[in-house]
Each structure stands twice: as C-alpha cells, then as structure tokens.
Amino acid sequence: MTPITEVAGRRLSLSNLEKVLYPADGFTKGELLHYYATVEAALLPHLRDRPASFLRYPDGPDGQRFFSKNVPPGTPEWVRTAEVPHTEGPARQVVVQDLPTLMWAANLVTEFHTPQWRAENPGVADRLVLDLDPGAPATVVECCRVALLLRERLAADGLTAYAKTSGSKGLHLLVALEPTPSEQVTAYAKELAVEAERDRPESVVHRMTRSLRPGKVFVDFSQNAAAKTTATPYTLRAGREPTVSAPLTWEEVEACVQPEGLVVRAGDVPERLDRLGELLAPVVDGSAAAALPRT
C-alpha cells in the first residue's frame, strides 16, 4: 500500500520508499525524500518563482532517464504552474514554491533544473552562469584553475562570482545580475569564454566540439540562453552515488588538488549548511546583483 503523509497541510502519496536509487551505496528513495526535506530551506529559494524542468530517473541512474518540462500527468491542483514561452508555442511548467510541492516533485525521483529568469519575467535574467566541463584527462582540478581565472575577470567588470559543484564532473560559476535580457547575458558570457580560450589556449575551449575538448576545460556559456536551464543548487544528480550540486567556498576551489576533494554527497550537505551557511545567499537575495558592463 502506498503511504499517505501530510506535508504542511497537503496530503501526499509517497511510493517505493525502499527502492535503491543509487547503487554505489544503497541510497534509497526514502533517503532521497529525506534529503530534500532536510535542505528545503536552502533549496526552495533557488526554485521559487522559476519554472522547473525535471530530469526523472525513477529506476535509478542505470534505468530510463527522461527530461520533462511540461506539467506531469496527475499533478495535484494545488501545485502552482506558469505559462512559459517555447519555440513551439507556450506551455505550462511547474513552479516549486513550497515544501509540499518539493516533496511531491521529489517523489517522482527528480533532478531539478531551472532557467536564469523568473516566471513573471521570462527571458530577463537575474543571474549569469558559466558551466565548466572538463574533457578527460582534465578533471575538476583543472576546472578550479579556470574558475579562478574567470573570477578575476568577472571582478574586473564589477561582478562577483560564486562557485558550486555541478554534482557531476565540473563546476558552475554563478553571478547575480540586475535584470538583463537573456540574449545580452549570453553574448557577454560568450565573450568571457572566448577571451579565456585566447588567454589559455592550452587549457580552455569555448566550443562544444568534442574533438577539441580532451585535456581542456569547456567553458559553456550557452546555459544563459532563455530556453536553457542549469542544475539547481542543492539538487541531487543522477549518478552512481548521491552527489549534489553544492555551493563551495573559494578557499575550497583554491585548495583543490584531487577530484575527490570536491565531491559533495547528500549526507554532507546538512553539516556544510550548519558550518558554512548558505553560501549562495547573496545570489538568492540579490544583494550581490550588479549590472553587466556596457559594451
């Protein structure tokens, strides 16, 4: 029988709690739900008011995965949705505003992805993201070196960068912005990526072409496009173990010499929040927001 629980006054059906989702350490669906409930105070501000896309993996990372933007069948009527423009026409997406919605979505076994803009202002970004993706044999260690270069470059333009793990192989850099059209943010981010490749051609590439990427860090600027999304801070990722896209201190980035040193698992996050606080708070509350330089 499917357990029924009440979350903040909403009745939810939670299923298959004993199912192992992450085979490397036996992490179950029940543990996934517990993780999201534990970190909701940090996670929800990154989801709130942004149309969510779900990467679903109901049978774990070795099973079927599918990316969903449209509102899933059976969505409760109390879940907020928003109309979002797409190239093929407007569609409705879920907006995760509260703990009941978070737990309902997590029960679908969900990796959360969000755009750089809010539902009430589509295509107008309030953050910039750079996705640093290493091409083997490069690792996150090389990503850290590139992240430090980009932090300095952004600071020269009056922008403050914040780092987080991708939850996979690389790093994400986030910058809080005053509201700016996504196409302008994308153009500026591309300039940064091209400049980084010009300055460090031996270690940086700005083009996605696979043949160019071995041993280098791909600086992906494209996730600033209005139609693109990025793994939300604190989301679990679909992999062999329950890794998280977790905020980092710059001291951790500077000190990174082994790839394993920047792997953050679900069990690590509550302690990190207690010890470090919400490292991305200035991005969430807009206190670090700045304007893009004039070109």
UniProtKB/TrEMBL annotation:
Keywords: Ligase. It holds the Pfam family LigD_Prim-Pol. It comes from the Bacteria. Residues 28-279 form the DNA ligase D polymerase domain. CDD domains: MtLigD_Pol_like. GO terms for molecular function: ligase activity. This is ATP-dependent DNA ligase. It comes from Streptomyces tsukubensis.
